[in-house]
Amino acid sequence: MRSDISFTVSPGDRQRLRAIVADPMSPQKHVWRARIVLLSGEDLGTSAIMAATATSKTCVWRWQERFMHEGVDGLLRDRSRPPGKAPVPPERVAEIIRLTQAPPPHEATHWTLGAMAKVAGIAASTAQGIWKAHGLSPHRWRQFKLSNDPKFADKLTAIVGLYVDPPAHAVVLSVDETSQIQALDRTQPGLAHEEGPGRHDDPR
Asked: In which residue ranges is the amino acid composition biased (Basic and acidic residues) (predicted)?
């Protein structure tokens, strides 16, 4: 063992450790942790324990040290990891979508991640994740169109949800724009058809 690690495996601990190894329902990570301590209690060296348990030197030392400080219970418990970012509340997401629909401040031509982060009080990475999840690309201002429908966020969420998590046994079909005609160009109503000279619509 490492020079700063020293412990004795008591008969009670040895019994618990052997039970963990013998139990077919024990997670494998618990089995080899228990074996490391059992072999350590038999005064085997680090190299021998590594070979017997197919683990690294640092792994052997880690679980020897854990047992020294926390006993058998410490072998069965993983260290807690720092919590991840809390999810953005749905009403906050809806507000960011609403802001994306509105003109950006300071007479800018389009929203940027930095501008949205500052106005909405969120991280730029969070704004990027919301835009990506909802298919929003306001920085592509030459092609991107924003609806002024007050229920745009609700409809967008419903459509995106249909693709991401469709109902059971459902078939989701997508119909693209007509070839050579993009809906992005249809920002103004079409002009009424006018007959030119010599043109007639009479089927006769």
From this structure: 192-204
